[in-house]
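can u do me a favor
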């Protein structure tokens, strides 16, 4: 039996359809991709078992003519279906997000480096995750990287996993302390889980241990993304042991000159030059000491560093990026009720006595200090948190020495800026600090006056539940009602689980019949948190989310909420920014978001935090225009102020601070302002300048020309749905379409469980079960696939086919007979990678047109062709005459072959130049680039335009 050999890029017919032969094929086994299909559609065919034959793409039939809109519909459907663009960005046709123009800047920077070393430092809410994902997806698609690891805090791990899967089709495994045993269970002997799973999201707590750290270093992927990279910037400050270990890990990873490293942070400088230089050293060792005041130093830095504020990209090129125009912040005060004040006084008296008691040594005294501080913070939060704290054992009670007591106390009570994770931060601390050795011979606890006192205060706290005795709760209820009345759906952030559940319970009662209320705390696994939020957002009623700081990072809530209430003050103002950043970010549709800060005017605790941290943070941010983390010395100042309140009853506003404490407070203010000013200066000094906007504009134009512009999608979807019998109703940001009347083939292709009618939104974000007018949206892709498949299958009933491959119309848009062709190109690409040249096959499409006869055509430019697509019919043509004229035109298409092949070659040259331009600076990556056109060109559509004349037709 004779075996036919098919070259890569050849068109074959098998299984009743046409396929493109891919480079991995052999003589007896073909790797095939359907025309217009993507990687998920690739199939393998044994030529000895299945029939395969050469195929040439047939011309359209003159018996199957469409109307004037057919050419535009078919072209858009074809482009929307591309998953293998011939341009320099291999991945953009395959991802489920349409990047903004400014988000392509880090990608362009990355492709100009042979080994990617990049620091993405854009402001909060701009989309750094998408930018890092674009770089990773492109490196993987081009073969420059084989494996990927994302390093992040445990709280953000599932968010990263979900973003990679939903937006970039990267199915990553979670490597957490809770998942590692399951992952290791299936490993072969001496096999590392980092070899078994090519894409992983690794939590920083997993690699704390030396064993896991060593394994990760030995088997680390060739592409690493580091989230919140500033936490690995060791700056020599005290109390940053975890920072130092993380920096050592990244430094070891960066020593491999072939490893791609993408660092992501919104605060790369934080006012400390040493920490900033430590990050830069990971990108390029010379940047650790290079003079960045000089032009050479800044140019060197610009190759690796990109940092933009919102104002830089709110309007970039021709795109407006949707951010809230304003954030209205307001402080709301409340005064304790008499009964709450009595408990507060009682607790302060108890705390003063406990801290002054040094009879049993310094360790027990430190344990008691942290216990009473936890109690005071819980009491300022809510009676529910206070009661829980009074009944629970203190974490510090088991401490072996004073240093351990301080470490445990700070972890439980303070909101450290160096926390590796926010998981567990909302657990209510305990205040029962009785010595664990305080027991009789049987092991039973010995009753103590102290414990009895705690229990009596717990009962007093229980009696304060509800808005009658709790003025803070009453004020919060009133403020939430006002927000709802103004059209805002708020998130109420609480510090402790007990407080969140308490607030949610009473808000549910107060808002019964007017709004839905749900609580999300650390008691829920991350997946259940997401589901509870989705369920709340999907309710037609107004809604209120009560949450702890388990949601202050990593969860985007801007599509369902527009306001934040700080029910409890965070003892770290960065956490306030994180909370408000859940709603004040890209995609928020409300023009203004609101932030309300509740505080007690007479509980003393709130006053210290508000003045020393929160208000100072806002003032510095407003003055400098930047946000930096609170300096490390803030914890010691805060502790000293609290100690003054407890021991001496000194209010920090009463002018009674001792000289040492006042000086420490002034040093904190100076350090904070200096850090903010240094950050502001660095943003101006090191502004990204290696990628000019014109460079970005040129590549964006190329991408949109190949894949279709965003503006073409809405008319395509509307025309297709109307042609198939759907009814469309305008909405504020798009339209809604009925789907029940659509043919079964379309209904079955739409995402299961979609809303009915199906809303189409102009841009992200969109509620669950809705669609977005982007090329990668599942509903849009389903419509494009249906239009293309039915246009290419003449056997489908004519009434069920929105587009046709041939058509004819009379129009005043032309002065002479004009023919338009929809052509599809196929290209062979030889793309150099680290492992050798990689052969690829890609597709492109173009509308071309000529005036006059095929024997002597006058070809139109791009603007004239665009005018033809928009032409409207202005006269009728008898059916038999239309068929005859199109048939004659089809007979002469062969005369155009040489010109179309020449256009294909010219397009190949343009693509080659585009690939080289994008990789400017990466010499090795440019050396072996080749782009060749597969000929002959496929002619998918032929459309005739005839002129009209006054008083008759021509």
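np, heres the sequence
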């Amino acid at each position: 039996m004779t075996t036919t050999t098919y070259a890569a890029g050849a068109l074959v017919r098998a299984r009743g359809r046409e396929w493109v032969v891919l480079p991995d094929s052999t003589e007896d086994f073909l790797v095939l991709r359907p025309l217009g299909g993507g990687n998920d559609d690739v199939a393998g065919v044994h030529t000895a078992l299945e029939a395969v034959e050469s195929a040439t793409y047939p011309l359209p039939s003159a018996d199957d003519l469409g109307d004037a809109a057919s050419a535009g519909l078919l072209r858009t459907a074809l482009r929307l279906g591309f998953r293998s663009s011939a341009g320099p960005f291999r991945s953009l046709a395959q991802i489920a997000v349409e990047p903004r123009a400014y988000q392509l800047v880090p990608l362009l920077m990355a492709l100009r480096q042979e080994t990617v070393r990049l620091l993405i430092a854009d402001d909060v809410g701009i989309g750094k995750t998408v930018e890092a994902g674009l770089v990773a997806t492109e490196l993987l698609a081009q073969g420059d990287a084989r494996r990927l690891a994302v390093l992040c805090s445990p709280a953000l791990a599932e968010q990263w996993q979900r973003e990679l899967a939903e937006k970039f089709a990267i199915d990553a495994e979670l490597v957490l302390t809770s998942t590692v045993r399951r992952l290791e269970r299936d490993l072969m002997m001496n096999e590392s889980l980092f070899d078994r799973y090519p894409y992983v999201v690794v939590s920083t707590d997993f690699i704390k241990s030396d064993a896991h750290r060593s394994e990760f270093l030995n088997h680390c992927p060739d592409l690493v993304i580091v989230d919140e990279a500033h936490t690995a910037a060791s700056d020599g400050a005290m109390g940053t042991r975890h920072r130092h270990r993380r920096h050592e890990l990244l430094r070891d990873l960066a020593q491999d000159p072939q490893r791609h490293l993408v660092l992501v942070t919104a605060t790369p400088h934080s006012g400390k030059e040493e920490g900033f230089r430590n990050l830069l050293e990971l990108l390029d060792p010379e940047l650790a000491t290079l003079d960045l005041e000089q032009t050479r130093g800044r140019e060197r830095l610009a190759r690796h560093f990109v940092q933009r504020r919102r104002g830089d990209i709110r309007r970039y090129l021709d795109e407006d990026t949707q951010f809230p125009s304003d954030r209205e912040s307001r402080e709301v005060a409340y005064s304790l009720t008499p009964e709450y004040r009595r408990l507060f006084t009682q607790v302060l008296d108890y705390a003063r006595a406990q801290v002054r008691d040094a009879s049993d040594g310094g360790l027990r005294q430190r344990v008691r200090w942290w216990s009473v501080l936890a109690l005071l913070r819980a009491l300022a939060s809510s009676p529910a948190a206070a009661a829980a704290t009074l009944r629970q054992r203190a974490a510090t009670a088991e401490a072996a020495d004073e240093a351990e007591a301080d470490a445990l106390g700070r972890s439980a009570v303070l909101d450290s800026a160096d926390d590796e994770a926010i998981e567990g931060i909302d657990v209510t601390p305990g205040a029962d600090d009785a010595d664990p050795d305080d027991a009789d011979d049987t092991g039973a606890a010995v009753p103590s006056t102290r414990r009895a006192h705690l229990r009596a205060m717990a009962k007093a706290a229980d009696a304060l539940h509800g808005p009658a005795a709790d003025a803070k709760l009453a004020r919060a209820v009133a403020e939430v009602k006002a927000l709802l009345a103004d059209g805002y759906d708020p998130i109420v952030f609480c510090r402790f689980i007990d407080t969140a559940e308490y607030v949610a319970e009473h808000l549910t009662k107060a808002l019964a019949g007017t709004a839905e209320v749900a609580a999300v705390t650390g008691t829920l696994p991350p997946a259940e948190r997401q589901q509870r939020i989705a369920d709340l957002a999907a309710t037609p009623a107004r809604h209120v989310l009560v949450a702890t700081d388990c949601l202050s990072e990593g969860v985007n809530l801007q599509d369902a909420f527009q306001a934040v209430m700080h029910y409890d003050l965070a003892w770290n103002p960065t956490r306030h920014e994180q909370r408000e950043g859940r709603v004040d970010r890209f995609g928020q549709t409300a023009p203004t978001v609101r932030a309300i800060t509740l505080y007690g005017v007479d509980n003393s605790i709130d006053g210290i935090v508000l003045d020393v941290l929160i208000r100072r943070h806002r003032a510095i941010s407003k003055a400098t225009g930047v946000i930096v983390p609170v300096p490390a010395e803030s914890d010691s100042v805060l502790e000293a102020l609290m100690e003054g309140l407890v021991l001496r009853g000194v209010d920090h506003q009463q002018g009674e601070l001792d000289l040492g404490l006042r000086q420490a407070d002034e040093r904190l203010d100076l350090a904070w302002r200096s850090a903010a000013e240094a950050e502001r200066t660095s943003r101006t000094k090191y502004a990204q300048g290696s990628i000019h906007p014109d460079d970005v504009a040129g590549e964006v134009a190329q991408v949109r020309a190949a894949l279709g512009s965003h503006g073409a999608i809405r008319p395509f979807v509307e025309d297709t749905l109307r042609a198939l019998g759907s009814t469309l109703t305008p909405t504020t940001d798009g339209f809604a379409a009925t789907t029940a009347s659509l043919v079964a083939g379309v209904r079955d292709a739409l995402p299961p469980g979609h809303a009915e009618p199906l809303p189409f939104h102009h841009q992200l974000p969109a509620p669950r079960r809705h669609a977005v007018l982007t090329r990668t949206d599942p509903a849009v892709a389903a419509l494009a696939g249906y239009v293309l498949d039915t246009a290419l299958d003449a056997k489908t009933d004519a009434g069920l086919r929105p587009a046709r491959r041939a058509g004819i119309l009379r129009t005043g848009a032309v002065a002479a007979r004009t023919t338009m062709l929809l052509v599809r190109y196929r290209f062979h690409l030889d793309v150099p990678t680290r492992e050798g040249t990689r052969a690829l096959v890609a597709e492109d499409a173009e509308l071309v047109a000529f005036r006059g006869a095929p024997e002597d055509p006058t070809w139109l430019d791009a603007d004239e062709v665009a005018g033809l697509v928009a032409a409207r019919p202005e006269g009728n043509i008898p059916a038999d005459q239309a068929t005859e004229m199109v048939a004659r035109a089809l007979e002469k298409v062969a005369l155009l072959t040489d010109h179309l092949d020449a256009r294909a070659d010219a397009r190949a040259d343009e693509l080659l130049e585009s690939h080289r331009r994008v990789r400017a600076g990466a010499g090795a990556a440019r050396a072996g680039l080749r782009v060749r056109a597969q000929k002959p060109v496929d002619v998918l559509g032929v459309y005739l335009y005839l002129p009209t004349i006054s008083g008759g037709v021509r």
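The chain is about 40% helix and 20% strand. hope that helps!!
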